Amino acid sequence: MQLYLPIAEVSVNIFLILGLGGLVGVLSGMFGVGGGFLITPLLFFVGIPPAVAVATSTNQIVASSFSALLAHLKRRTVDLRMGTVLLIGGLVGSTLGLLIFNYLRSLGQVDLLVSLFYVVFLGIIGALMLVESLNAILKSRKPGARKTRKHHYWVHNLPLKVKFRVSGLYISVIPPLLVGVLVGILSAIMGVGGGFIMVPAMIYLLGMPTKVVIGTSLFQIIFVTAYTTMLHATTNYTVDIMLALLLIVGGVIGAQVGTRIGAKLKAESLRILLALLVLLVCGKLGLDLLLQPAELYSLKAAGDL
């Protein structure tokens, strides 16, 4: 069943888009990520122009993240104070990111650079997460393995310390603010919630417990992606409402399923699955950049013919 998208100017299969939204919703509930790192490349693969995919995918991220957040609020696994600090940084970063996105678009290089951003960031984050998670599992299986104490890095010695009771932390607000700014920039440029950056940063940089990280990440993602969507809609006019609605319906349903699945898996298993998924998407995008397109064409001025 085909549907014509007026802003994207392409026809798509309705059930395919619903399925993509549902898949990303499951990931949102399981891993605490908005799923933009997956939904945006998938939209590229089905023929949606990159500028429209980036701007529209944030709608689906808001919906699936909100659905998953409700389940985490019931379990009281959301650190609202930490989420607010991350959110402040995220709003600043989103504004900066949109300025960068518009500049790249004016140069006519936004399609290539968005893909390059994905390959670089997904490759680095996925590899780091996979190595760390495998090491954690190997250590836990060693005879007589004991639970390691929390490490205190240089970031914990910075000024402006605040107590985050739900996370059990007493750290400076500077690192969470910087993480929020970075995630906001990526949200505007890449059409992602930034969970694939924020979740590892919250675990390994800030030292937050994994069970609290997922819900807190979703809290920040909702507001940053909603703000980013508004900026794209009012400045670039690249948000396709019909595409967004299909993704939202699938995402909301999938998020509830993902939350139930995630509650039954161990933290280390969740991190490995997320790392493998990130690397898989990275590999597909990298191949698309390196391989020769199926159809080659050139544009010539009328006088050159």
UniProtKB/TrEMBL annotation:
One of its GO terms (cellular component) is plasma membrane. Signal peptide: none annotated. It is found in: Cell membrane; Membrane. The keyword rRNA processing does not apply. The chain crosses the membrane at residues 12-39, 85-104, 116-138, 185-205, 212-231, 237-258, 270-291. InterPro entries: TM_pro_TauE-like (IPR002781), TSUP/Inactive_protease-like (IPR051598). It comes from the Bacteria. Keywords: Cell membrane, Membrane, Transmembrane, Transmembrane helix. It is a multi-pass membrane protein. Its main location: membrane. The keyword Membrane applies. Belongs to the 4-toluene sulfonate uptake permease (TSUP) (TC 2.A.102) family. PANTHER family: MEMBRANE TRANSPORTER PROTEIN MJ0441-RELATED (PTHR43701), MEMBRANE TRANSPORTER PROTEIN YTNM-RELATED (PTHR43701:SF12). This is Probable membrane transporter protein.
